[in-house]
Amino acid sequence: MIRKTDKYLLLFFLMIGFLRLSAERIVTIHDTLPISKPDTLPSGVIIIPPSQGQLYIIGNIFIHGNRVTKPFIITRELPFKTGDSITLQQLTRYFSQSREHLINTRLFNDVTVSLKEFRGYYADINIDVKERWYIFPLPYARPVDRNFTAWAQQGYSLSRFDYGLKYSQYNFTGRNDYLRVWLITGYSREVEMAYDRPNTGKNLVHGFGGGFLLSGQQEINAITQNNQQVFVSRDSIQNAGKYLQTQATVSLRYYYRPALRTRHFFRVSMNQLKIDSSVLVINPNYFLNHRLSLVYPELFYSINYNDIDYVPYPTRGVLFETSILQRGFSADMNMTQLIAKSSEAFSFAPKMYFVTQNFGVLRLPFKQSFFNQQLLGYGDYYMRGLEKYVVDGVGLLLDRNTVMRELAHFSIPFLRNTSHDHIPFRIYVKTYADIGYVFNRYNNLNSLQNTMLYTYGAGFDVVTFYDLVLRLEYSVNQLGEKGLFFHIRNDF
């Protein structure tokens, strides 16, 4: 017998499928645009009056507002260059693409790309940017738990905070490079220093980076029981060492970007992990073969294709990424991880959008230590409505679907006569449904493993500057549990 909740979920997915098929059949054709004065879109793109079939040559490109950013970093993101011959209709489309590419560098609060003037058959281009703040020597304080719900389950304990200083300098030399120095103490200890410069060389297609990390944890997630993390602290164990787990990592990184939308990334690192002997008493499978320390190399490669309008909160376009990770080569540490993920977003009615995000993860061989089994509930692998739970495993299929409507789009004044003269806000109402499955042949002692998972709900999103997304959601999961959840995300 099908339960009511299952019927409603089935109807929801049928509705989603219908909307997708209907939207895919809608093709809007602009054969001509009215010849009139330029018009500014809300996105900051200037529409120019097209002339049928006439080719124009890109002349000078003028850039304003880039006090720190080097001009060649900006022109690197343009789908055209000086000397190209294109129609004005093509140029209008390129203006929109240019703004999206520049915004997705996360260097600017706002970007306007427009036609400056004609000089015969030459078209000069104007680019105005508003740079972000790049230096953040900020005090750092946040719970160590995965999310606010997990922190609430620990009683909102202030002792579960890390605090310290994070010095981050984006656009360090004006080349979209990144320097960070983190000194964290409190619940755990962490010292990290890293530098990344993804644009070097004559054509800016190569990049490099490197860094090191030293960390110590007084408490670790030693085992999963009842689909929830079980933490063990140093203070709860007699004769425990200063830290229950320490880590030392040195890494080198290489970037390769042969085209505007395609990026390759390589990383090689050497890692050392140590745990206190008391951890194996609680979970003998924390490391394989009852090891207390491991030294292993890690190799990682990913390829990313990005045609999304705004990565932190997409409403149009597609994104695809696939990667392979090799962690160790010995009997004590040997894991090959394959990941594929995609995002697709489109508008099917005015101010209405459909977004689907899909993830696939496979870890080989299937017999892995507890350390290598974190999957659903960690990082990007989450289901709305299962915030209280984690699901360990070696295989994951995850599909998140959202229908949303923009309710409001406005700005409020901020710092006049600066690049932060206003703070933009976009408010969306949404409904969603997620489906997931986690495979675990070994250590499958939790009920959410090897079973179909589904959640659904509705909520509001607020999107503002510096890629800040606030989510308020009311969700229902397949266990019949309901709840209101709040999330803050800032990827920058």
What features would you describe in this structure?
By secondary structure, the protein is mainly beta. Among the domains are: 93 residues, Roll (Ubiquitin-like (UB roll)), CATH 3.10.20.310; 153 residues, no CATH class. The protein contains five helices and 26 strands. The strands form five sheets. Strands 7-8-9-10-11-14-15-16-17-18-19-22-23-24-25-26 form a 16-stranded antiparallel β-sheet. The longest helix has 22 residues. The radius of gyration is 25 Å and the shape is globular. The relative contact order is 0.09. The N terminus is likely disordered.
Q: Which class do the helix and strand fractions yield? A: mainly beta
Give the neighbour order of strands across the main sheet.
7-8-9-10-11-14-15-16-17-18-19-22-23-24-25-26
**Rg over C-alpha atoms, rounded to the nearest angstrom:** 25 Å
Provide a count of the helices.
5
| Multimerization status | single chain
Helix content: 10-25%
User: Main sheet?
Assistant: 16 strands, antiparallel
Shape: globular
Fraction of residues in β-strands: over 45%
Mean pLDDT equals 86
Low-confidence stretches: 1-43
Number of strands: 26
